[in-house]
Structure prediction request, 561 residues.
Amino acid sequence: MDGDARVIVDTLWVVIAACLVFFMNAGFAMLETGLCQAKNAVNVLAKNFVVFAVSSIAFWVVGFGLMYGDGNGFAGLTGWFLHGADNSPATGEAYTGIFSALNWTGVPLDAKFFFQLVFAGTAATIVSGAVAERIKFISFIVFSFVLVAVIYPVGGHWAWGGGWLAQLSTPFADFAGSTVVHSIGGWAALTGALILGPRLGKYGKDGSIRPVPGHNMSLATLGTLILWLGWFGFNPGSTMAADAAMITKVALNTNMAAAAGCLLATATSWIVLKKPDLSMILNGTLAGLVAITAGCNAVGLASAVIIGAVAGVLVVVAVIVIDQKAKIDDPVGAISVHLVNGVWGTLAVGLFASEGGLFLGGGVARTVSQIIGIAAIGALVGAVSSAVWLLLKLTLGIRVSEEEEFEGLDTGEHGMEAYPSPLPPPFEAAPAATTGNAMLEAQPRAANG
Amino acid sequence: MKKIESIIRPHLLDAVKNALQEIGVVGLTVTEVKGFGRQKGHTETYRGSEYKIDFLPKVKIEVVIPEEMLDLAIDAIQKTARTGKFGDGKIFVLPVEEVVRIRTGERGELAL
Prediction:
C-alpha cells in the first residue's frame, strides 16, 4: 500500500472506531437510567447527554494539550485549543510538531484529537452513575468539566502522553485504558459517592439496607449491549492504525473477556445470591470488558478468558462489599465495574502478558510497573477529585434538598418528568355539548376514531 | 341498580370479562390496583439485598347492573376468578342511586 492509501485506511479505521466509542454515550445513558428510579430518569439522561458536550469543549480548550502536548514528565504544556506546529500524519523521526507523544500513529491530528476526545468523554460518563439520584445538575457539569480539562489529561499524560509512567525502565502498560479511562473515572466516582453520601433512606439507622430497584431493566440491558458493541471501537481502535492482525486479535480478546465475565457473574450471583440477578449479569459483562481493556493487545485468547472470568466474580463480590459492608451508595455499580476491574485489568497485564508476564515466565518487572501506575494514578485522581468535590460542596453545593430528593430530581432540577401523567392537558372547547344534537355530532368522530 | 366492585387476579381478567359479557353485561371499568389480604406479600432481591413486596398487583372491576342480574353476575365472577388459593380477591356489592348517560342524558337502567 502506498503512503496516501495507508493514511486513508488508518484514518477511516480511527474515525469509525471513534464513532463506536461515541455511541457508548447511548449505552451509559440507557444503562444508568434503567438502573435508577423513574422519578430521576430525566436527570440521569440529561447528565449523560450533556457530559459529552462538556467533555468536547474541556478537552479542546486544555485537556488535549495537557495530555499530549509536549511538556515534562508530569503534564503537557503546549497545544491549547489544538493549536501548534504539527505535520501529522508524518510518524516517528519524520514527525515535527508539539504532539510528539502521538507521533506513532499515521493519521491527521484531527483524527487523533477526535479519537482521544471520545475516550475522555467515556471517563467522564463513568462518574455519572455513581453519583446519580442525589447530585445537583450544575455541580455535576462543573465536576465533569474539571475532570476532562485537568484530572483525566494529567493522569493520561503520565501513561499515554510520554509522562513518567511511560518512561519507567519497564513502561507502564495500559493499551486502551483500564487505568487511564476506567480507573480514573472510577476513582472520581468513588470520591463523589463518598463525599455526597448515600441516597436518603438507602441505609437505615438500625443498620438495615434498603435496595432501590432500577425502574427499567430493558433499558439497562439495551445499554449494556450498546456498550459491548462500543467496546469493539474502544479496544481495537486503540491500535490507531488499520493493522489487520492486531485489530482482530484485540476484538476477539475483548469479546471473549466479556463473555467470560458475563457467565461468571451469572454463576456467582446464582450461587451467592440464590438467583441470577440480571443487573449483576450486565455488570459482569462490563467488568470483563473493563478488565481486558489494558491487556487486549498483549495477552493470548485463553488469558483473555481468564481475565474476564476473574472480573465476573470480582464485580459481584465488589458490589456486595461496597453496597452492604462499606455502605457506599453506588446505584449502578460504577465503582465495582470501572474502578475495581480497571485495577484488576491493569494488574492482569503484568501477570498474563505474552511477553514479560509473571505467569508466563517474564519475571516481576512488568507487574511492578503496573502496580506503580495503578497506585500513582489512584493517588492523583483520589486526591484531586476529592478536593474538587469538597470545593464544590463549599461553593455551589453538591446535593439536592431532601424534599427534592424524595420528589425526584426530574421535577426538582428540570421541571419535567420522563413519564408524565397520561391525562391530557386541560382542553377548553366542548363541542358535543353545545350543538344540541349529540348523536349526529358524535357519528363522524366515531368513524374517525 | 347495583354496583359490583371485585378485586381479582390480573391474569383472570379476560375470563371474568367474557363471563360477564355472556350474561349480558355491556360495559365495565377496570383499574390496576395494589393491596394485600390473606395472601400477604412476598420477598424479592435486587443486587444482593432482599426486600418485601407488601402490596400485590390486582385488578379491580367495576360494573353497574340491574338488580335482577346481581346473582347471575356474582356467580359469573366467582366461578371464573376462583383458583382456590389465597389471593383470589373479593366481590363487593353496593347500591346505586342514579345513572346518567353523559352523551344523551338518559337516566336509570336505560343508561346502563
